[in-house]
Amino acid sequence: MAPRIHRLVRFFALVVLVASVTYMAQRSNARTDLTSAGLSEVTPETRQLLRSIGTLAEVEGPEGETEAREIPPVVVTAYVSKEVPRPYVPTRSRLLNLLREMEASGGPGLTVQIHEPDAFSLEAQEAMDTYGIVPRPLVSTEGDKVDTLPVFMGVAFTSGPREEVVPFFDRGLSVEYEIVRALEVVIQPKKKVVGVLRDDTKIMGDFDLQSRRRIPRWRVVGELEKQYEVRSLNPGTPIADDVDLLFVPQVSSLTQEALDSVQAYLLAGRPALIVADPLPFFNPKLAPSQPMLPPPSQGGMMGGQQQASPKGDYRSLLATIGVDWADDHVAFDLENPEQQLSDAPRSIIVLGERGGKDTFAGRDETIDGLAQIIALFGGDLRPLSGGTTEVERLLVTGSKGGWDPFGAFVDDSNFLFGLQFRGVPPTPTRMAAEDALENIALGVRVRGQALGGGEVNAIVLADLDMFADSFFQFHERGGDLDGDGLIDMRFDNVTFLLNCIDSLLGDDRFIDLRKRQPEFRRLSKVDEMTQKANDERQAQLEQATEAANEELEEAQAALDRAVEAIRAKTDIDETTKQIMIRSAEEAENRRLQAQTEQIEREKAQQIDRIKAEHARAVDEVRDRIRVAAILWPPLPALLLGMLIFLRKRRRESSTIPESRKRKDS
């Protein structure tokens, strides 16, 4: 055989070998996830679930027992666009990887169909008409142009008459968790029931008779409906036996009759999630110190208004299960680990890492593995002195926590508009250390024998605002605030709520899956280097506030002295004395008002100066890090290049004959 033909045969043999190896690798479905988070690797529990579909498998029954049950077949229909904006590329990749894994290793009853529809194709029309999966317009900033792409990224799960649809996989959603949850829900015979007690929070939605408009329900209800049957419960009536978990949105908004029903439920050992919020930011009129809102009137303004029912003894209910709630304490924390919220009021508390230590790690399953949780104007929960239950603290402030009284946040002097929120008081009222406490607890878990008898299984949280709709939107975006695909902040409020309900129900199938998200990495070195600047800023702010208060107190004391001097005079009659006091008060009040305005202006200027100095100090730290990031990376390559150059020159020099080398004259 001629050499040229021999080389040609070898070339074609090599092509066939490469194609065969590639085909066998694809058919074997062998994948390895080399990332630190391992998000593209399916967990063993998920793989076992996929293989069990369409077979006879051992499953956990409603009472926790194991039983053999035929897992019904499931059809998975996915609609995933070919082109997505850059921030959504990792989500699309994880979704397709998991769908292909399901297609390759699923049980005999699992059918996976993957469609990549164009905007106006028949497949797109089918997705919208059959499953309600609609394209979401997303902004794409590829190159120098800004464009809007209609993107499909939804999956429908069908098993007989049952159907579950994930209409869109946002960046903040765990792909594996959403798919596994939908699979588990579509194959289970019956959803567990979460009963939400109706109260003035209107968390389940309502209809306003006066304005003739519908009040939308909170997004937390829709999130719960993905996994449970959510039922609205009438307060005051006995809670039905088929309710698996009771959710009380605001315990202080219940009548005594409703509280008695809740207490009977709790003492029967049934699980409950109770919220006791001292200052609901979305509506301060729902605070414990405020009267119950009157029921809506159907006759409008001319039809009069019905009398509101009195509030029940909610503190006694909590005391029964071993929790002491100071209902006028609004918690704060002077230490804020989230630099992007460094200017936020102290009553907005970021719970999580403190001083480089993860305060959630290794603790209760509801918080273990979470990044951060944010609370807005939460409360102060403490174990009841002499209580018999075990009270475990879940959410706690740092060592610089404390509380302010509710009255310092609101103004009820306006008769026309009623109670109004006026802001955070200028100085902290009381630190936790003054009450011999290490920190303030905003969430506790209660187990054990109650004072009234019966085993208690409850979680009590001192903030309802942490489950507001804005946190669900933040959760869906994955903490990406600027749309660059990177995590700027992460708040796991939604995950925490779902973990609480699952844990109370003894259902741990999804708790670990919810934590499988891109890891939120804090710039620990930057935080450490800017901590001194943060401490100095806080100390200066406190000094400025104290100085302003001292000047105001001195001005007020001058007014009091002038009034007392007039009262002490005995050579004038009482009428003249009152006229002189009134005149002195008016003059001193004008002077005091002018002084107050001047002091407040000087205080504001000093605070602005402190903030500017703090910003410069933080920028200096970041600039040093940026310069180091520019200068340090090329150094290893430059040193290696210099080493290779010197080594090459030395080798070249060693090969030159001695006779050709330049000799010294």
Q: How much strand content do the residues show?
A: 15-25%
> Radius of gyration, Cα only, in angstroms?
33 Å
- Count of alpha and pi helical runs: 14
- Please state the average pLDDT score: 82
Q: What is the share of helical residues?
A: 25-40%
Coarse morphology = globular
Give the termini separation: 65 Å
Which regions have little confidence, pLDDT < 50, spanning 5+ residues? 298-303
Strand count, sense and closure of the main sheet? 7 strands, mixed
Class based on secondary structure composition and strand pairing:
alpha+beta
Say how many strands there are. 28
Strand order of the largest sheet: 12-9-13-14-28-27-22
SSE order and pairing:
Blueprint: H1 3-28, H2 44-52, E1 56-60, E2 66-70, E3 74-80, H3 89-105, E4 110-115, H4 122-131, E5 136-140, E6 147-151, E7 153-159, E8 162-166, H5 175-187, E9 193-197, E10 206-208, E11 213-215, H6 219-225, E12 229-233, E13 245-248, H7 256-267, E14 272-275, H8 314-320, E15 323-325, E16 329-333, E17 348-351, E18 353-354, E19 357-358, E20 373-376, E21 381-383, E22 390-396, E23 401-405, E24 410-411, E25 420-421, E26 430-431, E27 441-449, E28 455-461, H9 469-477, H10 493-504, H11 511-514, H12 524-568, H13 574-631, H14 634-655
Parallel strand pairs: 3-4, 9-12, 9-13, 13-14, 14-28
Antiparallel strand pairs: 1-2, 3-7, 5-6, 7-8, 10-11, 15-21, 16-23, 17-20, 18-19, 22-27, 23-26, 24-25, 27-28
Helix pairs in contact: 12-13
